[in-house]
Amino acid sequence: MISLMSFKQFFRDIRNQKMRTLMTTFGILWGTVAIILLMAFGDGIRQEQIKEMRGLGEDIAIIWGGMTSRPWQGLPRGRRVRFTEEDVAAMKSTIKSIVRISPEFTGWSVRLKTRDAVKQTRVSGVWPEFGEMRNIIPAPGGRFINALDMAEKRRVIFLGDRRARELFGTTDAVGKTVLVDNIPFTVIGVMQSKEQNSSYGGRDDRQGYIPTTTFKTIRSYRYPNNIIVQSPNPYSMEVIKDAINSYMSKKYAYDPEDTEALSIWDTTEGFRFIMNFFRAFTAFLIGIGCMTLITGGIGVTNIMNVVLEERTKEIGIKMALGAKKSVIMFQFMLETLILTAIGGALGLGLAALIIKVFPSSFEDFIGHPMINLEGAVFAVAVLGIVALVSGYFPARRAASLEPVKALKLF
Description:
- The chain is α+β, with helices and mostly antiparallel strands.
- It has helices at residues 2-16, 18-53, 85-94, 130-133, 147-151, 161-168, 212-219, 237-252, 267-310, 312-320, 325-356, 363-366, 373-399, 403-408; strands at 60-65, 100-113, 118-126, 156-159, 177-180, 183-190, 208-211, 226-230, 262-266.
- The protein folds into two domains: 2-53 and 272-408, no CATH class; 60-268, no CATH class.
């Protein structure tokens, strides 16, 4: 009975104060839209940045040989430090924390020729695990270099998707022959298109990859240009870098503290920075959304205080007839919760509609915003807190009225 009476009272107040109720509900609605959209777009930007960073590879470091800058054990400074493929194999077998590793022999301005096109491109000699480290995924119907290609020194090539289109057009390139500096190679795969925001020798979609054994046969290179190493997670790379530096410093006799002996691009450092940045960025956006929602809550508090002023005599009569303080508080709290719930539900629906009709043409820049479960639960939790706080003080004030004084006011 109490609940039914409270609902009747609530809807009567709405009918009597349509504009005031509408504006108050709009405050809650706008606050809910703000917090949902800020979280959704913030998460969309974060996911897009991570996806583009992982286009280069996940949890990897690219290491180049350098030049010593310090004398060491009677040896002069200025000595060149270079890897061999044997060094890479030794590291793979001795450094247990390495997940994958590959040398990379690079040929610049290699001439690729088909019947209809000629292109100058970068061709690298790599191990089979290179593709997994660098997120170079074959399109359906093709494959990357494998162990048999390495063992038999096969003349096979894996092409980036853009380079394959330039050489073969819309024709399926797999199984076709391409001349690599006038040597016939068979195309074994074409890379799936991917997003990539960084590189160290050009985008992967414009390159070609062949087995290291084949590369050394036709080019007679001894030293790879660089090596790629992958750690099990972003926080294990420091251990791997120290182990590689220790191995190289012992073998090639240089000071382990010499920072110029090896040049290292640790992509996990950038990944950790991005993750920390977006944690702070998300917290900032959530803070703005919460402030907006709190502003709406202040509006609810104001309207409930106005309702209290209008219903002071009614409250006095109820209390004179024996109504308990808990009943008065319950009625005011219920009305506040209903008003907040209506505004929150409308705000959630409007936010979902905005995200649904968001133009896909902008997704390359800010990603795809989505309302995730965490964001929705957080918004509901903030709404609940705002509703309780907004309704508590007017409700307590109403319940604290003395019946005689309340009746004397009117």
